[in-house]
Design a protein that fits this description.
Largest sheet: none
Number of strands: 0
Order of helices and strands: HH
Helix content: over 70%
Number of helices: 2
């Protein structure tokens, strides 16, 4: 009889602990979403200009060339 009560008490504490963690995670998700909305409202993302895309393509070509040269150097 005593063992059954201990098992039931264990399940109660397990449910209480898991419920507390679950509630904390839900509150944390809502807080992070609110913080993200506030930050994006006051500090919006800068819009990329057309010159940026050409610079990015030029940088990508340089990166590809550097990677290719490193692979050739490594292989001998």
């Amino acid at each position: 009889m005593e063992e059954t009560n201990l098992i039931i008490e264990g399940f109660k504490f397990m449910g209480l602990g898991m419920g507390t963690v679950f509630l904390f995670l839900i509150v944390m998700i809502f807080a992070m979403n609110a913080m993200s909305a506030i930050i994006s409202k006051f500090f919006p993302e800068p819009k990329p200009s057309e010159n940026t895309t050409s610079n990015t393509q030029n940088n990508n070509k340089k990166v590809i060339a550097a990677i290719t040269a490193a692979i050739k150097h490594h292989r001998g």
